[in-house]
Amino acid sequence: MKSVFETNFFGVIRMIKEVMPDMKKRKGGHIIVVSSVMGLQGVVFNDVYAASKFAMEGFCECLAVQLLKFNVT
């Protein structure tokens, strides 16, 4: 579980944290996150993978609203 979340969730967060300050300073930018349909609908026997993708979807949805004032989409 830890390794799946480390890659699929925390890895994405680390990357966003690296690029975010520059995007805020420039007042613009795009963040493109490649996810999975399992971030929207779970599939039997893929519970941990789906949970990591659900977490990423939720995080990015919340972040998108916060970054509107910086013109980052």
TrEMBL record:
Annotated Gene Ontology cellular components are: cytosol
What UniProt keywords apply to this chain's record, in alphabetical order?
Oxidoreductase
Keyword Nucleotide-binding (UniProt): no
PROSITE patterns in the record, alphabetically? ADH_SHORT
GO molecular function terms noted in the UniProt entry:
all-trans-retinol dehydrogenase (NAD+) activity
**PANTHER family annotated for this entry?**
RETINOL DEHYDROGENASE 8, RETINOL DEHYDROGENASE-RELATED
Protein name, please? Retinol dehydrogenase 8
